[in-house]
Amino acid sequence: MSKSSGKVGKWRWVKWIFILPILLFLVVQLYFFLQIWWWVGHNPSMTSFMRQQQAALQEKNPKANIQQMWVPYNRISNNLKRAIIASEDANFSEHEGVDWEAMQKAYEKNTKKKKVVSGGSTITQQLAKNLFLSGSRSYLRKGEELIITFMLESLMDKERIFEIYLNVVEFGTGTFGAEAAARHYYGVSAANLSAVQAAKLAVMLPNPRYFDKHRDSNYLARRTGVILRRMGSADLP
After folding, report:
1. Residue 31's closest CA among 144, 184, 187?
2. In this predicted structure, what is the pLDDT of residue 1?
3. What is the mean pLDDT of the chain?
């Protein structure tokens, strides 16, 4: 074998080392895109985050299952919709999936703490994470989250995004979605949540498993009052 042919063969392998990861990345993005397209008219049965939490529960109890019941958008109390927007994403109806100002503040906070402690995520970004990704925090995962977020905003209207979010978001240990949460905490349907009940559920979202065990914390009570006052100005999609 000549030196020139050896160099050509080596160069081909080098090219594939770069090309294969790119192809794999594109295939994964196509899968996400097609899945989101399907969910425009069909409801997700399980999300990535639900599967992870169910697996964690079953490590302790093989018979354990998550609690989740799908209900349409119009059967979820407007109190809960307003409370979640007021608590999690005040500009949800206006932005295109990302609140860049909130992300900048989160970046500054993370830089100061020298670790990822805040994401500045919108409702759409949270949905992207819940549908496909893990709960880990890294800038690589954040980048994938942004790509999925733009797919969601491109294929779905705000009401559909919010409907899916309300049905899959975690509200406590093994408790997902508004209907399961309403029954778990208050013994009522999601349609019948009062303003106070809805505000308290919304406040639990950033750390639901902790607040599931600490329902009478002073922070939860104070923050619930704040969200109650903000609910009136929350714009629904």
Report:
1. 144
2. 47
3. 88
Q: Which amino acid is at 163?
A: E
CA–CA dist 181, 16 (Å, integer): 49
Q: Name the pTM for this structure.
A: 0.87
The neighbour count for residue 192, using CB atoms within 10 Å, is 13
The CA-CA-CA angle for residues 34, 37, 43, to 5°, reads: 115
The domain 67-233: what is its CATH number? 1.10.3810.10
Q: With H, G, I as helix, E, B as strand and everything else as coil, classify residue 171.
A: strand
Q: 179: buried, middle or exposed (CB in 10 Å: 19+, 13-18, 0-12)?
A: buried
Q: Is residue 68 within 8 Å of residue 176, measured between CB atoms? A: yes
Domain residue extents for the chain: 67-233
Tokens of 29: 């993005």
Residue-wise pLDDT for 120-157, tens only, equals: 689 999 999 999 987 667 777 788 899 999 999 999 99
Distance CA 150, CA 98 (A): 8
Residue 235 DSSP symbol: P
Q: What are the start-end ranges of the H helices in the chain?
A: 3-39, 48-60, 78-88, 100-113, 123-132, 139-155, 158-168, 178-186, 195-204, 208-213, 218-230
